[in-house]
Amino acid sequence: MSNIHYMFIKGSDIALRAMEPNDASILYEWENNTDLWPVSNSQIPFSHFVLEEFVNASHQDIYTNKQLRLMVTSLADQKTIGVIDLYEFDPQHSRAGIGIYIQEGYRGKGYAKQSIELIKDYAFNFLHLKQIYTHVNESNVASLTLFDASGFEKSGLLKHWHKTGLNTFDNVWFLQCYNAN
């Protein structure tokens, strides 16, 4: 595909790139933001050391680690503005999960949709996956709208799936996007 150049997957406004050692600091900020924990399934803080180890380890081999994390970079200012993951990579069944985070201040500008389109192109045309999928809380209207606009279909509703409080739960939509090839 013409939008893949060396180590970067480039779109018109953003590029997806491999993690670099200096990304540990921004991951430290994002991973320890307790506002994000309900959607990331985290419940504990990460140390800077653990994140440095994660970034410095050979986590870029999706076949070994069953996941790939790429940093979303704005081409206008070369700033890292988010992260997109392929996780639960399953080459036998040709599928992977997808997760995305775009930093506040860069949301609503189309960067998330462009990131999803780029990772779909990579997943379908280079990894030759049949589908990618995601789980989105029913209350997360912005993400549901994003994934719908990116070609994902609601396939099932998981009732009372994510705990949101002491005795409260949110339903979660399971969404899939299929490779037409």
Q: What descriptors fit this protein?
A:
181 residues, alpha+beta, Aminopeptidase, nine-stranded mixed sheet, 6 helices, 9 strands
The total beta strand count reads 9
Main sheet record: 9 strands, mixed
Q: Report the top-level CATH class.
A: Alpha Beta
Cα-based radius of gyration, to the nearest Å:
16 Å
Structure notes:
With 181 residues, this protein is an alpha+beta fold. It has one domain: 3-Layer(aba) Sandwich (Aminopeptidase), CATH 3.40.630. Helix content is 28%, strand content 35%. It is built from 6 helices and 9 strands, in the order E-E-E-H-H-H-H-E-E-E-H-E-H-E-E. A 9-stranded mixed β-sheet has the order 1-2-3-4-5-6-7-9-8. The N terminus is likely disordered.
Brief sketch in words of this structure:
With 181 residues, this protein is of the alpha+beta class.
Secondary-structure blueprint:
Blueprint: E1 4-5, E2 8-10, E3 14-18, H1 23-31, H2 37-40, H3 48-56, H4 62-65, E4 68-74, E5 80-90, E6 95-102, H5 111-125, E7 131-137, H6 141-149, E8 153-163, E9 169-178
Parallel strand pairs: 6-7
Antiparallel strand pairs: 1-2, 2-3, 3-4, 4-5, 5-6, 7-9, 8-9
Helix pairs in contact: 1-3
